[in-house]
Specification:
three-stranded mixed β-sheet, two-stranded antiparallel sheet, 10 helices, 46% helix
Length: 234
């Protein structure tokens, strides 16, 4: 089974509650050169890492039962390198910020890139698409629902994820000229073109004039880090 199909099988198995250890074993022992060759296409590569991230979050939640409301435990949960893919020992942060955010330094708000990523990160990462923030589920109550991604429907599915997230996690008060938005837009504002980019995106989605973004202020909603497992899109 090819790598992208394995990532889909892994996430599907997690959703169905089946034994995914054989799939994890195949992914762990996958030939790294074959993986790079199969994921030459940027779309397939992005779908692969999205599926892997979302699947392994659920697997690790089951294994470790972390209290994500605690900063120290949350930091360890995302930084520990306990995921093995093609012989690479990865953390959730490595997948999110290294592979899916093109080696962004996680604490920099999207403004700094690691100047010295390792060889395989350079080969397997994908250019940043801000819509991944609406597709990655980190196991918290404020996260978007989990979807299974394939290369053939990735564009459509990312658009659906974006629309759903902007519908449910943002709102605009035109009387007060205030945009209320998920804290994700604050933490990673650089991925959206800065705070002006955030405002333009949200105003446009709600059918308002993005050109009037300077008249609005942003207010970020508290992020609920309570663990919420198995939140899959219907």
């Amino acid at each position: 089974m090819k790598a992208l199909a394995l990532s889909i099988a892994l996430l599907t198995g997690v959703r169905e509650g089946s034994d995914v250890k054989p799939i994890m074993h195949q992914l762990a022992n996958y030939d790294i050169h074959v993986l790079a060759a199969e994921l030459r296409d940027e779309v397939a590569r992005r779908a692969f890492w999205l599926n892997c991230y979302n699947a392994f979050v659920q697997i690790l939640l089951q294994q470790h039962k972390p209290d994500l409301t605690r900063d120290d435990i949350r930091r360890t949960f995302f930084q520990q390198r306990v995921i093995t893919i093609a012989g690479l020992h990865l953390s959730l942060n490595d997948i999110e910020h290294g592979m899916l955010r093109y080696s962004k330094v996680w604490w920099s708000g999207g403004y700094l890139t690691d100047p010295f990523p390792d060889r395989w990160q350079r080969r397997l990462r994908v250019p940043l698409d801000y819509r991944i923030h609406f597709a990655l589920n980190c196991g918290a109550a404020s996260c978007p629902p989990i979807r299974c991604f394939s290369d053939s429907t990735l564009e459509q599915d990312l658009q659906l994820a974006t629309s759903f997230f902007l519908d449910t996690e943002t709102r605009v008060d035109t009387n007060e000229c205030t945009i209320y938005a998920s804290s994700i837009f604050n933490w990673y504002n650089g991925d959206f073109g800065g705070y002006d980019g955030v405002k333009k995106l949200i105003l446009s989605h709600h059918g308002l004039d993005a050109g009037q973004h300077r008249a609005y202020r942003l207010e970020f909603l508290p992020y609920d880090w309570s663990v919420y497992e198995h939140y899959f899109s219907p």
